């Protein structure tokens, strides 16, 4: 029987609050700076939570064409920008179909796929257009004459995969994974499955969300999931801190180039890390609630480690979901203890949501990017805004200052509305 | 067919068969070689414009009852399209537990109702099994439109305090999967895939990946409900919706008068199992196995179709290669049947390219109910399995005069014939092409 097909990460692109490319993103994280601020995209004064982690993003400067900008919601624009950076970083010749790129090699070339995650898709554009066609909600029977011609493109979030497939001429399997806040991890996990099973040789994988619109802010207000620390927005995202009061909504995208390991090696690609293992489980308990014991997340972690053939003692770094809600951080801490035992107390655990907020489905991909860069640089990003210990959160959360630390194996986890619990293991290329 | 494509297909299939990547294999798979397992479908649940439940739907489909009708859920007078395939007579209280009804959108009601029916049909009670042994993977389309439009209106007319506490969990694309996992206590590796109309097939492909990694049972398929004024407005922007006044003139796949599609609502859930697990528990029905699958993307344009159907043809060829079958083994093609002349011509050309001169029977019964996004392709697979079960191919829906230029054997009346292998196509807006092969399983 032939060797299992393994998956390498050979390119990374990022659009994040406080840094619109890979380098700025990593600098922000390792400086421990926060990119949360008072919401500026619209007047947030009616809302309970008025803080957000916004991207200062110029799509034209990021290389998007006027038409790409006009027809796409911001979440697709982010992904196009991040993918441009990731593809360039990988050195692969991926160009629009019919222009001689890798995708044009048809049956002779590698099969290139797209696996992108998003929790809420084009919500912002759908809301903006709704406001116009309904005249600010005055009419239930909205007027289609005021609709743009790109509205169906926004209605179904698979537009994200379509835009990347078209931009990079990829004819392999393409889809969007939409499992709420674990979408980013799951999209990369599914991408690695496509490679493992021989359904694709290269996959453009990652996630994107741009949820900072009134309806998104309102729906999290309604369940008091977001932080109301409106007088101190820079310090509002406080994972694992005793005074945390909810997550800070963010936006952004990370895109990874996944490649079958032996082919990547053969072409001399730079390999950031390997996707060693991935697993997802559901808590089958509640759409938003979490039991404090963390059983199902612990199971996902255990299976992901198992498939990566690593044990608890091999884990050098945990990138936590660390959303900064009361229940999440307790749940997760319990899951780490349950799955890693004593090792949970020894390994550094941090949440980059403290700096770039929680960009729903996108954040999982940004956290995987952070893990890949931690492996590359042997530096662990900190948990910013950590000041006061919560007795229920008693691990080493790398408070406030990045730490030089050899990282050969990193674990990243996510937990999402719908009860999804996902875990992914990334390991250094020569391990 | 180019030699190059054939080689790639064979390589892909060979690699798939030898892949050893079970995430849980070492833990729960007991060392069985799961990499090449062909999962079986042991339960079907249907909620469609032509019926609640499989038998009602199937009987109506075989009778050729046109269930596209003037929209009744709101007054469509101001819209250029006024017809749709609505699910009539659906009382959520009869199908969904009360506490879920208030938390969820109509789309989720359909998905949960279909899932309950599918589990009953399979005689599978998840409570009898390890909670991690069952997962749910649905294709999702446009999310919770009724809920979404209502809460947007509340926000923009009455302010943020008027927004429902359930908005955050009802509108998003994972709602049906999440609620179904909670309702039935399913802790396995659940998922949500979105590829517009191809989503139902892609959910079955993900279910297969999950089963090959050691989870014995997966609920898969999808549902859709987008018949709100805003949902319809979004459809209209595609420029592909039929503006016919009468249902008989509307969505007419492969007809010389094809003039676009009509949206519909509903979908199907399929219970997909590891064959060994199904046999071990004595599953009452085995409708067939998922023998092969492949997906491609046109990568041409976000809205305009590709110059030709070559990537759809590639998906069909790769799906057949994955199944280890030749085109001659296929007894019927359940087509995507987009209902627009350009897209129908493209699919016809792709079918001819794969099947050559052989006139494989082609059908598209969805002409009776409209296009149900991810729910539609799930329903097509259910329909193909019913065809296998009963040895009858349903007719193309709402077809009067096949376009002779297509050169296809379009099924115009139910055709009694043994069906062992069916190939199902589904395409999604933007360029998604998926093909799935289902095959009869001989009784053990």
Automatic annotation (TrEMBL), chain A:
Q: Where do the Ketosynthase family 3 (KS3) domain residues begin and end?
A: 4-428
GO MF assignments = 3-oxoacyl-[acyl-carrier-protein] synthase activity
One GO term under biological process is: fatty acid elongation
Which Pfam families does the protein's record reference? ketoacyl-synt, Ketoacyl-synt_C
Mention any one GO cellular component term assigned to this protein in its UniProt record.
Answer: cytosol
The enzyme's E.C. designation: 2.3.1.-
SUPFAM superfamilies per the UniProt record, alphabetical = Thiolase-like (SSF53901)
- Gene source species: Frankia torreyi
- Signal peptide segment: none
What is the protein name for this chain?
Answer: 3-oxoacyl-(Acyl-carrier-protein) synthase II
Family the UniProt entry places it in? Belongs to the thiolase-like superfamily. Beta-ketoacyl-ACP synthases family.
Name the keywords, alphabetized: Acyltransferase, Transferase
TrEMBL record, chain B:
Q: Which GO terms describe its biological process?
A: fatty acid biosynthetic process
Q: Name the domain of life this protein comes from.
A: Bacteria
Enumerate the GO terms in the molecular function aspect.
3-oxoacyl-[acyl-carrier-protein] synthase activity
Enzyme class per UniProt = transferase
**SMART domains to which the protein is assigned, alphabetical:** PKS_KS
Q: Which UniProt keywords apply?
A: Acyltransferase, Transferase
Q: Which EC number(s) does the record attach to this protein?
A: 2.3.1.-
- InterPro entries from the entry? Beta-ketoacyl_synthase, Ketoacyl_synth_C, Ketoacyl_synth_N, PKS_Beta-ketoAc_synthase_dom, Thiolase-like
Q: Where is the Ketosynthase family 3 (KS3) domain?
A: 36-440
**Family from the record:** Belongs to the thiolase-like superfamily. Beta-ketoacyl-ACP synthases family.
This protein is called 3-oxoacyl-(Acyl-carrier-protein) synthase
């Amino acid at each position: 029987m032939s060797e299992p097909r393994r998956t390498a990460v050979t390119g990374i692109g990022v659009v994040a609050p406080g840094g619109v490319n890979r380098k700025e993103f990593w600098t922000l994280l390792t400086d421990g700076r926060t990119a949360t601020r008072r919401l500026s995209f619209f007047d947030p004064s009616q809302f309970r939570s008025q803080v957000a982690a916004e991207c200062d993003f110029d799509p034209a400067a990021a290389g998007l064409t006027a038409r790409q900008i006009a027809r796409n919601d911001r979440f697709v624009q982010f992904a196009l920008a991040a993918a441009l950076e990731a593809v360039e970083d990988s050195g692969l010749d991926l160009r629009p179909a019919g222009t001689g790129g890798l995708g044009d090699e048809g049956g002779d070339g590698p099969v290139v796929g797209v696996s992108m995650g998003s929790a809420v898709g084009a919500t912002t554009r759908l809301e903006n257009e709704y406001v116009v066609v309904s005249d600010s909600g005055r009419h239930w029977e909205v007027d289609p004459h005021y609709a743009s011609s790109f509205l169906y493109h926004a209605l179904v979030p698979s537009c994200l995969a379509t835009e990347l497939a078209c931009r990079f001429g990829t004819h392999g399997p393409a889809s969007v994974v939409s499992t709420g806040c674990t979408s980013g991890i799951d999209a990369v996990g599914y991408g690695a499955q496509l490679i493992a099973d021989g359904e694709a040789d290269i996959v453009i994988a990652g996630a994107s969300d741009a949820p900072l619109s009134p309806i998104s802010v309102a729906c999290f207000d309604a369940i008091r999931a977001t932080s109301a620390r409106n007088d101190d927005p820079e310090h509002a995202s406080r994972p694992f801190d005793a005074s945390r009061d909810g997550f800070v909504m963010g936006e952004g995208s990370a895109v990874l180039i996944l490649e079958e390991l032996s082919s990547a090696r053969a072409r001399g690609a730079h390999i950031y890390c390997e996707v060693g293992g991935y697993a997802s489980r559901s808590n089958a308990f509640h759409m938003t609630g979490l039991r404090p014991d963390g059983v199902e997340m612990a199971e996902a972690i255990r299976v992901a480690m198992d498939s990566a053939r690593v044990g608890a003692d091999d884990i050098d770094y945990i990138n936590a979901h660390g959303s900064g809600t009361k229940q999440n951080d307790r749940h997760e801490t319990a899951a780490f203890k349950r799955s890693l035992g004593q090792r949970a107390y020894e390994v550094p655990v941090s949440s980059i949501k403290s700096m770039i907020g929680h960009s729903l489905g996108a954040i999982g991909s940004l956290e995987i990017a952070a893990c890949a860069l931690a492996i590359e640089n042997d530096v662990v990003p900190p948990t910013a805004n950590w000041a006061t210990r919560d007795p229920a959160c008693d691990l080493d959360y790398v408070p406030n200052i990045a730490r030089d630390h050899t990282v050969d194996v990193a674990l990243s986890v996510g937990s999402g509305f719908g009860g999804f619990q996902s875990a992914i293991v990334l390991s250094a290329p020569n391990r | 067919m180019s030699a190059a494509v054939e080689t790639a297909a064979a390589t892909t299939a060979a690699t798939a068969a030898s892949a050893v990547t079970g995430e849980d294999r070492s833990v729960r798979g007991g060392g069985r070689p799961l990499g090449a397992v062909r999962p079986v479908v042991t339960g079907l649940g249907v909620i469609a414009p032509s019926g609640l439940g499989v038998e009602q739907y199937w009987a109506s489909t075989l009778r050729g009852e046109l269930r596209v009708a003037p929209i009744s859920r709101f007054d469509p007078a101001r819209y250029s399209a006024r017809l749709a395939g609505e699910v009539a007579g659906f009382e959520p209280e009869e199908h969904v537990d009360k506490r879920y009804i208030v938390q969820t959108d109509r789309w989720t009601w359909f998905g949960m109702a279909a899932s309950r029916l599918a589990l009953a049909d399979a005689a599978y009670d998840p409570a009898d099994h390890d909670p991690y042994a069952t997962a749910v993977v649905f294709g999702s389309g446009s999310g919770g439109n009724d809920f979404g439009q209502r809460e947007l209106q509340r926000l923009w007319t009455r302010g943020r305090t008027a927004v429902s506490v359930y908005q955050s969990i009802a509108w998003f694309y994972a709602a049906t999967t999440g609620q179904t996992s909670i309702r039935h206590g399913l802790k396995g590796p659940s998922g949500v895939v979105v590829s517009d109309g191809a989503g139902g097939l892609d959910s079955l492909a993900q279910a297969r990946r999950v089963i090959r990694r050691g989870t014995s049972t997966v609920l898969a398929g999808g549902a859709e409900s987008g018949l709100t004024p805003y949902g319809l407005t979004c459809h209209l922007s595609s420029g592909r919706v039929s503006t016919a006044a009468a249902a008989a003139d509307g969505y007419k796949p492969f007809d010389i008068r094809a003039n676009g599609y009509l949206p519909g609502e509903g979908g199907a859930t399929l219970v997909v199992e590891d064959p060994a697990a199904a046999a071990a528990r004595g599953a009452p029905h085995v409708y067939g196995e998922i023998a092969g699958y492949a997906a491609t993307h046109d990568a041409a344009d976000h809205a305009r179709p590709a110059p030709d159907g070559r990537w759809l043809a590639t998906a069909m060829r790769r799906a057949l290669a994955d199944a280890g079958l030749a085109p001659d083994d296929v007894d019927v093609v359940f087509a995507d049947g987009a209902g627009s002349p350009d897209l129908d011509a493209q699919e016809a050309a792709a079918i001819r390219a794969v099947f050559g001169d052989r006139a494989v029977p082609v059908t598209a019964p969805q002409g009776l109910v409209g296009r149900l996004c991810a729910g539609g392709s799930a329903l097509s697979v259910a329909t193909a399995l019913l065809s296998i079960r009963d040895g009858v191919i349903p007719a193309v829906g709402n077809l009067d005069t096949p376009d002779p230029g297509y050169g296809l054997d379009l099924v115009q009346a139910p055709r009694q014939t043994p069906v062992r292998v069916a190939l199902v196509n589904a395409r999604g807006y933007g360029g998604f092409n998926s093909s799935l092969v289902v095959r009869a399983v001989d009784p053990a």
